[in-house]
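WP5 quarterly update. Target: Molybdopterin-dependent oxidoreductase. Source organism: Aromatoleum diolicum. Length: 924 aa.
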Amino acid sequence: MTPETKMETKATCPYCGVGCGVLIEHDGARITGVRGDPEHPANFGRLCTKGSTLHLTARPETRLQFPELRDTKGEARRRVGWDEAIDVAARRFADVINEHGPDAVAFYISGQLLTEDYYVFNKLMKGLIGSNNVDTNSRLCMSSAVAAYKQTLGADAPPCSYEDFALTDCLLIAGANPAYAHPIAFRRIEDAKAARPDMKIIVVDPRRTDTAAMADLHLAILPGTDIWLYNAMLNVLLWEGQVDQAFVRAHTEGFDALRDHVREITPAVAAEICGVKADDIRTAARWWGEAPAAMSLWCQGLNQSVHGTHNGAALIALSLATGKIGKPGSGPFSMTGQPNAMGGREVGGMANLLSGHRDLANPEHRAEVARLWGVDSVPEKPGLTAIELFDAMHEGRIKALWVACTNPAQSLPEQERVREALARCDFVVMQDAYRSTETAPFADLLLPASTWGEKEGTVTNSERRISHVHRALPPLGEARADWRIVCDFALALGPRIGRNDAARLFPYASPEEIFAEHAATTRGRDLDIAGLSYALLDAHGPQQWPFPEGATVADATARTRLYADGRFPTADGRARFVVPTGRLTAERADARFPLRMTTGRLRDQWHGMSRTGKVARLYNHVDEARIELNADDMATRGIRSGELVRVKSRRGEVVLRAAASDEIRSGQAFVAMHWGANTLNSAGANALTLREFDPYSKQPELKHATVQVEKAELPFQALIMRGQGDKEGGEASGGGDDPAGITLTRAEALAPWLERFSYASLALAGRDHPAVVLRIAHHQPIPPEWLAELDALLGLDDEHCLAYSDTRRGITKRARIEDGVLVGLRLTGETAAAGWLRDVIVERQPTAELRRWILAPLANPPAAAKSRGRIVCNCLNVAESDIAAAIGGGAGFDELQATLKCGTTCGSCVPEIKRLVAAGRSAA
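Structure tokens (predicted):
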């Protein structure tokens, strides 16, 4: 590529809600690189490990490139044209609507859609079809925060901005691990602490995460006890005179009832329930009360609970009681989990909301939206929320479902029930960029959608900042923009259900026209953006709302934080205190299920891995699903780290690798949320979680379930690794038959094999020379014909392969060597050599000295082939063993950065490096 052909296009990262700006590097035909946008106010050029590898996800392999239709349940899908696909979808939905009514169909959409996509989905369902059955995976993510904000402050409007991290004197992080989930926001927190060491950081989390490790005070409460902690903190604030009585009298309602409620909830009482020291609760309250500016930051640890709304309300009460809201460095700040969950909420893209932050239950709001859209009415009956929707489908009440840009067969709780519901539904449409999500097998119609780098529209990040996302490339194959697919469907459906006004309702020729209509519907609302346009965003960059007509970019400081005047968007302008109620958790631990399992994120993976799972280097930090346990609990059960265990809840069972962790206390366990049926022989964590939900937000308790753990007796094991051949290029070499593409194709071909085994795990490995890794464990000898099929699938059955067999010991080995380089391996019966042999493959080490060891019956590697182990710094490929050796030689954090350079690029590994340094000093 010549310098003249290199171009850059402004967009945003499609991962978390920080909303980082990115510059997509491309040549007009393919994406070749990505870097942080130095002008974007969310990140100022920084990117995390996930964002900095986005260009490696822009590949054709595993993408859905043309529509596919299944004519009859159980049959294979066939390729069809767009006209036939849209016609069939419209006919099938119309048949259901005409026979069973509009409430017999539903749309389940995503916080990863752009705002324009969200807007037309919402208008389609509520304005054309006449039902409110449109909900989103944001229901699993942020709906409790929405409900908490509305119950207390009057509107779904986070009042803070990222710049408040640098201005606060006390930051309370609750139920969040931004070091992993929102890394670039965490970089700003690290910067703030470095610049102002006296700033106090309190972290409330059952685990000692990398976020908690840098806190001045870590409150490792028991899962589900958050409300008791915040009530006890308020008790201390009351007793010690830290409540701002003047602010409470002038700007709030309901404080007397909450004061009476917390009167007896002393630190001593809460300490017994929460499992932390009473003195630590007093310390946290005093730091909060004495700080000139104090702010809270929370995410899924609070939201994903049967009392998630009141978790948020109890935390918000600390800001209201002390008057620390609407001021620099102060206020309650909910971080969104998805890139455009906020934009979806703005357009009313949930079953209980309407456009412009209007409430479905309010008849005036319904009438106003009907006038704006030019329809007779908006349906009054609330729609089904996510869990209710799939329950209704399980019972046969939902007969046609449209899923867009989300993966319910991996992300919803009680997966067995979810998959039964999908299988029972008469007609399922999946609109997605990827063909191999866990939901795809249940779809009767697949519609290819454009994805990152191919889309234009807007997104709103966690601090209410709207960015214009530009398209770098045209959609791959026959893929179409999500908004275009919706409009085409609406035009085809309308006449079939007696709505001849579909063309008037969906006249859009571009996403810009949709944005203009959306902005107009917000006029006069709390999120008024009537003054925004694509042209203004392009000229002046991302802007925070509200931005009413007549506003100027120079007014930006007035939008930095909300409620500076003490007036709130309620009927009387006052905020509300809420008396929190609810059970501690949906289920209690008992003798049968004694361990409290929590779920969460990994540093380098995101959601169901449909995007991050395509990048080999993102597996190098954690390469296999595992359950993390306290060492005492493992010893009690006779389990060693690295062994397979059977994990059972009241709903399901999975087999996972056990890992000892000093992050959690005895009686608890942790499983990452990302792994599903494309990487395991099970649905992962959500085979265990339960669908009980918060009564106000309808958000399920995905964060907590009780489980039992026992050693899994699976003696027959195999390990298969396949890397690149001699003529295959590197990971970043672009499209075509390069090794990343070949590896992805192999991984996709191996995924259906996972369910055959008692345990199976599929992962990628390496960096410039990626490989696919399949780990297998079975309750009986693995059938030879299965191994033969796998050998053939991966090219481990020809003249390039060495073979070894020990029938008596049940050991067989095959190794593929091309031009002196090991490129493939299959071990059965003896798999302990996995670590160093993987490194031989992905680093393409010459095998001249290693050849006799590859098939040897011993697992000990030769001196020339020691395993590097886990990669801590993905940007610069620095392994934990490299860091440990340097620490052993006396290196501190600064010396590590100077010599190994780890943590000097994206910074995502900095918290872990600091933790390793501290552990090394402690050991010394």
